[in-house]
Design brief:
Helix content is 37%, strand content 11%. The protein is α/β, with parallel strands linked by helices and 310 residues long. The chain has one domain (49-266): Decaprenyl diphosphate synthase-like (Undecaprenyl pyrophosphate synthetase). A 6-stranded parallel β-sheet has the order 3-4-2-1-5-6, with helices on both faces. The longest helix is centred in the middle third of the chain and has 24 residues, at 107-130.
Length: 310
């Protein structure tokens, strides 16, 4: 009851109302131009979006509130982003909710996170199932506390045959641990005589990952301004476009989401190749002198060493 009241109070007092904005594509240097249908996503949507929901604790601290209050407010943002992904037809959404390193946080913060996790699944599972969302937990479910473990297993079992949005929630997750687990599973099959080492390829390896059945990540979004992937989906992010938003996760709404999607849509994705429409190179004798290309640089930042959410 107290948590419900606190969450409502925080939302009313601090969370800005959703607003729809126009943005300028990241390519080009001309003046800003308003995009049509400012409250609609672009036509070129990513099939798989991954989000590192970062900054809950700092959002709360900046307001003189306990870190647990930031996690409660972040749950409200999470609810709307899942709905938006479903509304806009995104195929898969992967969320970094709790890493293997997060167990090192204070006992009070971990307990608050576990309580919010249990509350979320108990309150949202009916709506998610009704919308045909398929829930998959990425991470070591067996390492979770018993009440949370039961809720997670029940959610996956209940929604396993759903054909809508693939909702992947990373809990007790570490990217290197996932790769190690996949290698171990394949090694066990080789040892049992079920598989030859030369049969192992990228496709077979990918089938051992938690995300088997989902496409590779097209777009990674990280909030709070941190510029790292923090051991999240290292295999699946191999060709992902990355967008970093300075806002803390509790303030991330559909307007921010749309901005990230439009940034993605403006990117030129070549996957190591070149555009088919690129003109042929001129013979060396006829080639025009090209200006030197200066490497892109980012301004140095003076960020603290606080480990990011989740």
């Amino acid at each position: 009851m107290f948590l419900d009241k606190l969450t409502k109070l925080l939302n009313d007092a601090f969370r800005p109302k959703p607003k729809y904005i126009t943005v300028t594509p990241v390519t080009g240097s001309g003046p800003a131009q308003a995009l049509p249908s400012a409250n609609e996503p672009p036509a070129n949507l990513p099939a798989h979006v991954a989000i590192i929901m970062d900054g809950n604790g700092r959002w709360a601290t900046s307001r003189g509130l306990p870190r647990s209050a930031g996690h409660a407010a972040g749950t409200e943002a999470l609810r709307d982003i899942i709905r938006a992904s479903d509304d806009w037809g995104i195929e898969a959404l992967s969320l970094y909710a709790f890493s293997t390193e997060n167990w090192s946080r204070s006992k009070e913060e971990v307990q608050a996170l576990m309580g919010l996790l249990l509350k979320y699944f108990n309150s949202e599972i009916d709506e998610l199932d009704e919308k045909h969302v398929k829930i998959t937990i990425l991470g070591d479910v067996d390492g979770m506390p018993e009440p949370q473990r039961t809720a997670l297993i029940d959610a996956m079992e209940r929604t396993k045959d759903n054909t809508g949005l693939k909702l992947n929630i990373a809990l007790n997750y570490g990217g290197r641990a996932e790769l190690t687990r996949a290698a171990r599973l394949l090694a066990e099959q080789v040892k049992a005589g079920e598989l030859e080492p030369e049969d192992i390829d990228e496709e077979l390896f990918g089938e051992q990952l938690y995300t088997a059945g989902s496409p590779d990540v097209d777009l990674l979004i990280r909030t709070s301004g941190e510029l790292r992937t923090s051991n999240f989906l290292p295999w699946q992010l191999v060709y992902a476009e990355m967008v970093f938003d300075d806002c803390y996760w509790p303030d991330f709404d559909r307007a921010h989401y749309l901005k990230c999607l439009r940034t993605y849509a403006a990117r030129d994705r070549r996957f190591g190749g070149v555009k088919a429409s690129a003109p042929e190179a001129k013979p060396e004798a006829e080639a025009e002198t090209e200006p030197a290309i200066k490497p892109e640089t980012e301004p140095a930042t003076d960020r603290n060493n606080e480990e990011a959410e989740p």
